[in-house]
Design a protein that fits this description.
Blueprint: H1 11-31, H2 43-56, H3 58-61, H4 77-84, H5 89-99, H6 110-123, E1 159-169, E2 172-178, E3 182-183, H7 191-198, E4 205-210, E5 224-234, E6 237-249
Length: 254
């Protein structure tokens, strides 16, 4: 709103000064927030994505994006953020492209998948900007809270990655010196993700590994590894139903 003034000769100058100050404040605020909160897609793009979603995706994800048990997961809300927080938009774009539509994955163009991704961002209250989302920008944008903080505690039965030391205790395999589990996707890790995991410090936790024999744990004994699988933990019992096991380093502290 324009500030009233009796000095009409300076009105134009005052408006310009106020506008410049406002833009400077906005730029400063954006500089302290994660990139995803700066407006990485356009409203027009999200509208196109909504149209495609409503004609193609609602059987599995419902019109409200809350998911359909047994067919498709929620694309909004706490569980969605638990699964995707700190992941890049590139990871979700790849998931959309390789799994949707359910009966014909990959059948849409890249531009349409970008439109769908923009709609998912809009539905999760990320703000729109002036420019559309492009494939070249996806890897540099992460799902993060507005203050930039990381993941919430991961719930039971979520797909997680855990870094630790692989050891055998009697007839059981365990991960010792584990760091906190982080939500992940059921897919092969990229080289950059493995490098990041290799640099993750060890912790003081221990998890019992279930259904691990298909991963040939004996070939990784004593190594620093990343295990992926379904999480289950209560005070007296911590388990991981293992789906993959990847070496991060040749040895672990004894």
């Amino acid at each position: 709103m324009r500030r009233p003034t009796s000095f009409s000769i300076f009105a134009g100058t005052l408006i310009v000064a106020t506008t410049v100050g406002s833009l400077a404040d906005n730029t400063s605020a954006q500089g302290t927030e994660p990139k995803i909160w700066s407006g990485v897609y356009s409203a027009v793009q999200a509208d196109r994505g909504k149209t495609v979603f409503q004609s193609t995706c609602t059987t599995c994800h419902n019109f409200d994006l809350q998911g359909n048990s047994g067919r498709g997961p929620a694309l909004v809300g706490d569980q969605f953020m638990t699964n995707w927080e700190t992941e890049s938009l590139s990871a979700l774009f790849t998931r959309l492209k390789t799994t949707m539509p359910r009966n014909n994955p990959g059948s849409l163009t890249d531009d349409v998948y970008l439109d769908l991704l923009a709609y998912v961002l809009q539905a999760n209250s990320y703000p729109a900007g002036r420019e559309p989302l492009t494939s070249t920008s996806l890897a540099d944008i992460q799902f993060l809270k507005k203050d930039g903080s990381g993941k919430k505690a991961v719930p039971n039965f979520a797909m997680v990655a855990i870094v630790g030391c692989l050891a055998q205790a009697d007839d059981r395999w365990v991960l010792t010196h584990t760091a906190e589990p982080v939500a992940t996707q059921e897919r092969a890790s990229t080289d950059s993700e493995l490098r990041e995991a290799a640099g993750q410090p060890l912790g003081d936790g221990t998890f019992r590994l279930v259904s691990v024999f298909a991963q040939k744990p004996e070939t990784h004994r004593g190594e620093k590894v990343q295990a992926k699988g379904l999480l289950y933990r209560v005070v007296s019992d911590k388990r991981l139903n293992v789906t993959s096991l990847e070496t991060l380093g040749p040895s672990c502290p004894q």
